[in-house]
Amino acid sequence: MIERNVDGLKKNAQKKRRAAFEKVDKAIQQLIRDGEKINFNSVAKASGVSKAWLYKEPEVKVRIEELRAKHSKKKISPKQKASDASKDAMIKTLKVRIKKVDAENKGLKSQLEVVYGQLLNQKELERKLERLEKENAKLKDKLYAPIASETNQKVILIKPASGISERITHELESMNINISSTLAKTIKNASEEKVMTAIDALKQQIDSTLIRSPEAWLSAAIKDSWKPNEAMGESKAKDAFSEWYELARAYGVVTECRQEENKWLVRENTGQWHPYKEFSEKWTFEYLERVVKPN
Fold first, then answer.
1. Enclosing domain of residue 143
2. The 263-268 sheet, strands edge to edge
3. Residue 235: inside a domain
4. Are residues 280 and 209 in the same domain?
């Protein structure tokens, strides 16, 4: 009776052992298919068999250890290698670009410093130029002031009746024109008819435009035999020259004038002749009027 019970226990133990082997085998196969790690913990959990039993069974223990070692030494796939190589190349390229950008930034910074320095120099030069122009204007005033003073002292009024006909005198008085020594000399050197024609031209010009110096305009009209009804552009040009010439002569920068090929020439106080157009750009009407006729 006792022997029968022992045999039954042995058979039952063997049956349980085979069942445990089957569970472990199925669990390992499933872990392999799922790509999970294989170790004693994962196999015990997946199979429901205790870790102690797994360690106790030599065959099972060896199998788990081999699978665990094989999994840890698993090679990296070609795709993974390619991905890592691509990342390394990208990092290397970025580092090179960063160095290049740093170098460019340093170069731009240096260029900016140079440009900024040039701007400062330009502003300084502009300030110096402005200061020199002011000093030059002051020197001109000092240089020609004595000449202008002496010249102005020579301009005196004479009695209209001194060698000038009553007809001309009456016309000039009616127009409120003072007869300076220069104008008187011009009138005396011309015929009465020529002077009256110039006076008529002056009247016509006064009706059409503003004349700053009628005396100077009339003097030029007598010398050049101007007549009424001349082209407005020519009259204005003559008027502009006459006014400028009287101021320039009063200031002492010119001494006489003449006309060649319909162009005015003026003689500088140095004795040199210049075209009126060029010389008037140097000595402008506005400047001469300001220094000769200050408010």
1. 107-154
2. 254-260, 263-268, 273-275
3. yes
4. yes
Burial of residue 201 (number of CB atoms within 10 Å: 0-12, 13-18, 19+)? buried
Q: Which of 279, 237, 235, 236 is nearest to 257 (CA)?
A: 279
The CB density around residue 165, as the number of other CB atoms within 10 Å, is 14
Examine the domain organization and report whether 245 and 147 are in the same domain. no
Same domain, 263 and 186: yes
Q: Alpha-carbon distance 40 to 36, whole Å?
A: 12
pLDDT digits (tens, 9 = 90+) for 81-140: 556 677 778 788 888 888 888 888 888 887 878 877 777 778 888 888 888 888 777 776
**pLDDT (tens digit per residue) in 36-92:** 999 999 999 998 999 999 999 999 899 999 999 887 765 555 565 556 677 778 788
The tokens describing 154, both together, are 């020579």
Does this model's pTM top 0.70? My answer is no
